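thread from #wetlab-drylab

HS: before we spend reagent money on co-crystallization trials with flavin-adenine dinucleotide, can we at least see a predicted complex? here's what I'd submit
DV: go for it
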Amino acid sequence: MLPLERERFLDALRAVLGVAHVLHQPQDLAPYLTDWRKRYTGQALAVVLPGETAQVAAVVQLCALHGVGVVPQGGNTGLVGGATPDDRGEQIVLSTRRLNRIRSIDPAAGVLVAEAGCVLADVQQAADAQGMLFPLSLAAEGSCTIGGNLSTNAGGTAVLRYGNARDLCLGLEVVTAQGEVLDALNLLRKNNTGYSLRDLYVGAEGTLGIITAAALKLFPRPTAQITALAAVQDVAAAIALLGRAQSRLGCSLTGFELMSAHSLQLVQHHFPQMSLPFDLPSAWCVLLESSEVEGESQGRARLEALLEAAMEDGQIVTATVAQSLAQSRALWHLRESIPLAQAQEGLNIKHDIGVPLSRMVAFVESTAELVTQALPGARLVVFGHLGDGNLHYNVQAPQGADAARFLADHQTLCNRIVHDAAVACGGTFSAEHGVGQLKRDELQRYGNPVAVAQMRAIKRALDPRGLMNPGKLLPGEPPH
Ligand code: FAD
């Protein structure tokens, strides 16, 4: 963009949003230009902070007029570089941080309408204040936003019982690529009237339009959450325990997380104030959570009986059941600290694979062998939502090695090994975090060609000029 047009464009943005909400000084832009993992840093013409839907629409209209790409950004906790602009400085970042009102809560209907920039933890608290539960929960919940959660179709720790972000959404308000407001804030549980546009925008990673508000499903708040940590010999034992827990606990089973002993040791190393309830006697641990609506003591008795029976059958080596909310939180804190401990340990090669449970053991065993053969000394940090068939299969540089060098030299080979193995097992290279810019080429490589062609057709139909989050998700899209 020529300097004169650039000034005209910035002036027009200021006229819509007010001077304070159009950032363009380097020190103001900086926090919006690097992703959470610090893998990507881009440049931007400006960062804009609209405070209402009409302002988002006006900004998008201006971008359409000037041919400027728009990168939507919520809490900037995404793990695939989806909210970071490219490095040409020709795009704007549209931050939803000021779109942070809860518009309504109807506990009787179990519906909450939140603007896209509401922080997930605030939505959980608003539901809680009405005696209800908004069950989406993930370690980034203090920063990530509803818009980002929906745009990445976030999963988290309670998918087993409540589903992904998509399953928790009844309807959306979206600003389209043309700057129109699509009011599809459906509050109905049943509404079969043509294509589900909601399902297009959920998981689109900002490439089709900007979500400005969402109608979200609420659930009765459990009266008790009972958490247990169990050490298991291997992944096969963890899967057997999952089957047992599902049949004994039914819908009460809300969380089932697998963690390698190595990932917990990393947490202990970097956060020594966090203690494990037992010395790790085996290579794997499982975190189980049961949520009860009918009294804690019955639920606790059921979970303890389940664990005792599993121990008698040799599925569990040792286990502990949290005796208080504080103990339960401490167990979850261990799990949620694994990504943070990994970040402290240094750059690592991350994978977010999904594999059918029936092939999980084969995947874990064969991939460990292949990775350690190809990269001697590499450390596997494996953890995740086993109940959903989703593991974070991360590879850390050998002890003492230069992590950045390791990443640069071995990422491609490592991705090939892990993603080939997941796909060979009938799985996916992207179970939870999305595609963004990190996995764009993987979509080209592993995506079903018919599906990718249809995605391109949808993109062309809804965003013919390619101005919505350019260069993300779809491989080989022209830059804007
Ligand atoms: P951002 O990072 O700001 O954006 C993510 C993507 O959505 C980008 O492509 C962006 O352009 C787009 N976007 C953002 N807002 C909008 C909008 N309003 N309209 C259109 N597009 C938009 N993810 C999981 O699924 N499960 C987990 O368990 C999980 N755990 C995590 C733990 C940690 C410690 C961290 C750092 C991340 C974790 N994540 C997890 C990934 C991430 O937090 C989630 O994907 C989250 O949903 C992103 O929300 P955000 O507001 O930060 O989005």
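DV: The chain has a mean pLDDT of 95.
HS: ok that's useful, forwarding to the group
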